[in-house]
Sequence to fold (485 residues):
Amino acid sequence: MSPEVIQLGPIILLLLLLAIVFIVYATAKWKLHPFLSIISSTYLFALATNFVGSLSGVEEPIIADIGKEIAGGFGSIITSIGLVIIFGTMIGKILENSGAAVKMAEVVLRLLGDRHPALAMSIIGWIVSIPVFCDSGYVILSSLKKSLAKKTGVSVVTLAVALSTGLYATHTLVPPTPGPIAAATNVGIGPDGLFWVIVIGLFVSIPVALAGHIWARKVAAKLPVELDEAVESFEEFKARFGQLPSAFASFAPIVVPIVLLALGSFANFPVGVDAQGNNEVLITGFANTLLTFLGAPVNALFIGLLFAIFGLLPQRNEETLTKWMGEGLLDAAVIIMITGAGGSLGAVIKATPIADYVKTLIDGNVAFVGVGALIITFLIAAVLKTAQGSSTASLVITSTIMLPLLPSLGLDAMMGTVPIGQMLTVMAIGCGAMVVSHVNDSYFWVVTQFSKMSLSTAYRAQTMATLVQGLVGIVVVSILGIIFL
Fold:
């Protein structure tokens, strides 16, 4: 970028902030679909940037070809993660409809018994929401929550918050849920790094889920209960799904892809440098080729889908192979479109001098580098989440904004071949995307309506719980940042 263009940084940064305000306002007030609000704001931002450049005497447009940048940004994101999102969503739909999610719950309950019902609900939610959207997971397990409350005598509000916060923790932090995958791709993490995002996401999500569990036991337990007592036992609840699949078949579509991703990363782990300066990896030859193929995210998720199809479908017929798969495609399409729109916005941002201008702002100011940058990232995601309600949109938009700024903010650090700076950025965004779930969030209404909480109870139980979760999460991420950045 030429110095005269970089000098326009403050005005263009202001235009970007106005574009974000437009996204929030159009989504929250006009009820415009997030895809259209992001695309519209991208065009407005690009046109306004070129207009400002023209007024300032810049001879060539700052963004040379707006249409090409928008289309290229959209296409590059879809190329990277489109199939991954589709396969992951289909797996979730099969787990949801086949009773596999209920089987997972049964396994956890069998391990914990009736002694720790709230902990059981937290763990069940934490596991189920890795592939299943938190909204769907809550609907599926809502009756289980009521049955368990009847059986153990624990407040149904306690179990409701334990379940909802367990689901929420992995929903925003752990791939293959679409939001974290999109955020990881948007900040430049390639297929080789996805396994490490899963690892760190699982690590951060544990204290986050635990924070929700403690809130459920210590605060939600004291709130009024308005939900009618369950009329069926857990056994009767299970009977609705007919013959449940086996535990192996239920967990395999989640566990197998994670194992394959791990093997792919393990095979390509660098152990030295040869005479030509090329990295030497742990496993070579055909074994490396095979494990690299199996460990590619799109291949690993497709194998997980095959496990789901052949291990979980009660019958492979038009109902399951067409209708269920079609439902999964519809769910995936919305996420892909929003993610692609975020890619368009990111491409346009990268074509402007914002990154160069921000670098001049923070040059020598350590408060905005490393851990400080993670906290700023968290705050951006939290503002977007609170204002417009969608965690996925918050993940997509914030990660899009952050990509060109990572080097300036010290968030491009590597730990060997592991992109630790980018991974922590994804975690900071995921924690921010939790803060807070309230009336503009569909998940808030799913939790409150299926638990029949009054609005005041819901604010104290669900909304405050998500605030606590996000704050605990960013504390954990900041500690990791102090250690690794």
